[in-house]
Every structure is written in C-alpha cells, then in structure tokens.
Write a structure and sequence with these properties.
With about 375 residues, the protein is an alpha+beta fold. It contains 13 helices and twelve strands. The chain has helices spanning about 1-35, 50-55, 60-70, 115-125, 170-185, 245-250, 255-270, 270-280, 280-285, 300-305, 310, 320-335, 345-365; strands at about 45, 85-90, 95-100, 135-140, 145-150, 160, 195, 205, 210-215, 220, 230, 250. The strands form four sheets. A five-stranded mixed sheet has the order 1-4-5-3-2, sandwiched between helices. A hairpin with a 5-residue loop joins β8 (about 205) and β9 (about 210-215). The longest helix is centred in the first third of the chain and has 35 residues, at about 1-35. It is globular.
C-alpha cells in the first residue's frame, strides 16, 4: 500500500511539472517571437529529471542544507546566491554546466516591468554567442522556479568584489567589457534592447577575469522608428537611474549610458566612497531624489576619491595613471549627462578600449 501511494504521489508531481512546463513553454515562445522577430535560436528544453540527474539531485537537496548550515555544501558555486541560486553539474556525464535557479519573480508581472524567466531565456538565447554574456544551453520550465542552464566549469564564475579586484587596469578591463555588452544589446538586433538593470550584482567574472552580463529579464526593446519607450513602472535601483527614467519612466539608450556612468564611478571610487561623495546615504529610499552632482569628484583631487582598497595596492599613483583616471572620470560624467552630449555605448566602448591600449603600451604589456 505504501509503495502504491508513493508511486501515485510521484505520478502526480510529474504530471504537475509537465503541465507547468507546457504553460511556461507557451509564454516563452510568445516572448521569443516578440524579441527575436520570429527568428529561431538553438535552445534545449530539459526535463526536471534531466536537471536532477545532471546535478546529482543536489538541486533540490541544497535548500535543506542551506537552511540548516547557511552553506550549500553540495553546490560548488554556492557563493553566487544573488539573482537566484546557482549549481554546478555535468551534462551527459561529460560537459560541465551551471544551473541557475531563478527566485523571487512574480508569476504575473506587468508586461513592461519584467517578464521574468521567459524574457531572460529568450534574450539570453540571442546573445549567447557573445563573449560578454554567458553561453546558454537551454532551460527547464517544470520546477516551481524555472532554471537556466549554461556551459561552464566548477568555480568558474564569481561576482565582482572590489576588495579583491583592486588593480586599476583590471577595473578598466571590466568597464570596457561591460560597455561592449551594452553596445551589443543596443546595436546587434533590428530593435535596440535597453538593459536597464546595471549593477555589480548583475556582472560575473569568469576564471580568466572576463566580465559577463547576466539577468536580461528587465530588458525592453525600443519600437522601430522610435528612440524611447515609456513604461508604467521604473524600478528601485535609484543610483543607476537617470531623472527621466526615475520620474517619467522613459527608457532609451541613454538609460543604460547613465547607469554605466555610475558603474564607472563606483569602479573608480569604490561603492562606499561613492556613497559618501554623492551624499547617497542622506536620501536613500526617499521618494524625491536630487539630480546627480558629481562634478566635485574630480577637479585635481584624484587621490581623495580613489577607492582606498585600490590605493593600498598602488605605492603611488603615477602621473600617467592619474591622467587615465581623469579621462575615465570625464567619460563617466559624459555618460550621466554632466559634460555635453551623452555618448552612445559604442563610443564609450571604443574610448575605454583606447585608454586600455594606452596603458598597456606605456607599460610594455600586451595584455591587461
């Protein structure tokens, strides 16, 4: 009798998973058609059993371990706990994969806010071949929270920690790679995609230090013939949001340029120093946010605004490095609209690449 009940329970669970996967599959196809203009992208749909087998069933067991020990002993990349939870596994006993379990998504979000997993999967499949995005294999829609499957290696990816990434040249490299990823979203497709989700939490570094932009669920496309789109809801990452986006809910390519400009300033100053310099702590969480005023960050006081973690590793800031930092800061202020016309992300990526080449050639290095 117990055996019969156990098998019936398994059958019910499997039936529910299949029904859930079918419903979400329909949502995904609609999103794919809208995002990709009907073009197909190679993507594999995994069953729940395949995911459990690939992760040696730890995918489900991890939650119990984490609650009791605050450490996921079975997951090899348990430090990646933001924007969902991440697990390593092996596909067909050969290829290493990374499984991302998406958490905290509303099942029925407003269409222009965040379409959640369907949009993330659809756009990830479009950008998967670019070096600054993760290589998507497929997805599984049968679990309560959908999962995305990427190619990878154990311990390959890590979040950006400015206490670890202390080299100025490494930070310049990260900035260039993130700018390149945003430029790709803006220009590689018939309609530009605006990322509007900038932040350290959405960038991973692989074992070679290459930056990867993740979580594409907040992307919105600009209609053909238009330069912006108006939404019904802006978001809550105030420090990365320009006034037009925050107050008027207007999204354009300049939305990403602004967010990237703030990201650049945080790379230069460190997040804590950035908060102090901009007075962010004084009005965080308030409904009315003042315009950004970062002109005082430069003006010959570079030693005062550099991230202390980075400064500790530099015996002294050379005149050449100081000039590169000034150029970096100037470009960030152009991105946030404080110095003339806001550049597009292609221009930003080119200027950052040029600065990195200058730094590399002057030091006699071929790679930073």
């Amino acid at each position: 009798m117990d055996w019969w009940k156990k098998n019936m329970s398994r059958a019910v669970v499997k039936k529910e998973r299949l029904a859930r996967g079918q419903r979400r599959g329909e949502m995904f196809l609609k999103e794919l058609i809208q995002c990709c203009d009907g073009k197909t992208n190679p993507i594999k749909f995994f069953s729940a059993d395949q995911i459990l087998k690939a992760t040696e069933r730890y995918f489900c067991k991890c939650n119990i371990l984490e609650r009791s020990q605050n450490v996921c002993e079975c997951s090899r990349i348990s430090e990646l706990v933001f924007q969902g939870k991440w697990y390593s596994g092996t596909l067909d006993s050969r290829r290493m994969i990374i499984v991302k379990k998406m958490l905290g998504r509303s099942p029925n979000p407003p269409r222009d806010i965040c379409s959640g997993p369907p949009k993330d999967i659809a756009i990830s499949s479009m950008v998967s071949g670019h070096k600054n995005f993760m290589k998507l294999v497929g997805c599984c829609l049968e679990f309560e929270y959908p999962v995305l499957v990427y190619y990878g290696k154990e311990k390959q990816y890590s979040p950006i920690d400015l206490k670890v990434v202390v080299s100025w040249r490494r930070r310049m490299k990260i900035a260039e790679e993130v700018a390149t990823a945003l430029a790709y979203l803006h220009n590689a497709f018939p309609r530009p995609f605006v990322y509007r989700n900038m932040g350290f939490k959405n960038i991973l570094l692989d074992e070679d230090g290459v930056a990867k932009l993740i979580d594409l669920s907040y992307c919105v496309s600009i209609p053909k013939g238009e330069t912006f789109v108006k939404l019904t809801w802006a978001g809550r990452d105030y420090d990365y949001m320009d006034d037009n986006y925050l107050f008027n809910k207007v999204v354009s390519e300049k939305t990403d340029a602004f967010g990237f400009g703030i990201f650049m300033q945080k790379l230069l100053t460190g997040e804590e120093r950035f908060d102090e310099l901009c007075g962010w702590k004084n009005w965080r969480g308030k409904n009315k946010v003042p315009k950004w005023l970062s002109k005082s960050m430069g003006e010959g006081r570079m030693d005062e605004i550099i991230d202390p973690n980075m400064l500790k590793k530099m015996d002294e800031v050379s005149e050449e490095e100081r000039c590169l930092m000034e150029v970096f800061l100037n470009l960030s202020e152009r991105c946030i609209g404080l110095r003339g016309e806001v550049p597009n992300m292609v221009q930003v990526a080119k200027e950052l690449k040029r600065s990195r080449k200058t730094a590399s050639s002057s030091s006699g290095e071929t790679r930073i």
